[in-house]
Amino acid sequence: MSEWQPIDTAPDDMAILATWADTWKERNAGVHVEAMRKYGPYWAYAYDGDTPSRPPTHWMPLPEPPRARS
Fold first, then answer.
1. Domain of 43?
2. What is the pTM of this model?
């Protein structure tokens, strides 16, 4: 899956890439995309556990991490 999906279809057992639909307006320099994880009924930022002021609207899987050069 490589397209943004509605947040209500997101898995609740793994970190995801999340966004808010209203940040994707034309000429918006502040597109907001975060790694998030669901904790019970709440979404939280994966890096510190804080909750956003409003839940995200869309999600997609996190990409594979880069591999170290040999």
1. 5-61
2. 0.77
19 close to 41: Cβ distance less than 8 angstroms:
no
pLDDT digits (tens, 9 = 90+) for 4-26: 999 999 998 999 999 888 776 66
* CB 6, CB 60: distance < 8 Å: no
| pLDDT tens figures, 26-64 | 666 566 788 899 988 889 988 888 988 889 999 999 888
User: For residue 49, is it within any domain?
Assistant: yes
Distance CA 2, CA 51 (A): 25
Joined together, the tokens standing for residue 13 give: 């057992």
